[in-house]
Amino acid sequence: MDGGGERWSAVADEWSELWGTFARPAWAPLLEHAGVGPGTRVIDVGCGSGELLAHLTALAARAAGVDPAPAMRAHARERAPVADVRAGDVESLPFEDASADVVVAVNALQLADDVLDALAEVSRVLVPGGAVAVATWAESARNDLDVVERAVAAAHGDDVRPDGELRQPGGLEFALAESGFDVVAAGLAPTPWRASDDDRLVRGILFGEDPDVMAELAPVVLEAARPFRDPDGGYVLRNAFRWAVGRRPG
Domain 5-140+162-191+241-247 classified CATH 3.40.50.150? Predict the structure, then answer.
């Protein structure tokens, strides 16, 4: 899996500060259609710095988290101390067969080397009738963030990767169906990202870059984000996540 545990550990603090709750608008439909409630055994795959994991424990779910990055796991344990946080990824889940009622993967499934292999592993840990709830970025045309990232890539001389199949309409549903899940719900969740000032905008877009690169590309970021600036000096980038819930036949 292209999880980059060491790379993500290096940016764990910034990720938690700037992006940790970004996908929150997708949580409610995922958890509702997956039937998460008190006592539900839920595995949060790619739990990152633990924001969704903490939300699950607040719902009284029996939550476990999996992430390849040690520093991310440290954040998750601090944020959700009652959760069972383990090293692993979506293609190698450190859990017994049929040990979970729900598996949630937000902004994680697309990192798998083979999505169908990953979903087979998810199916393994689910009980018959258990649910998988997945979400990822929608196609680039729906994301202001992609406008800024394309400008940064052009300034850096980098190629812009095309949208993956999971980002396309119906992509998540197709992957779930191909993996033997019965698709029960799917949708689009608006996920705006707000930056209160220029500094937060630049750090959010370029997090993980070294200071010299950040200083070089900051003007590019600010110019590309100009259409998204608020009168108060902040920025609102409107984006969207696609989500889908499937159920293992029981």
Answer: yes
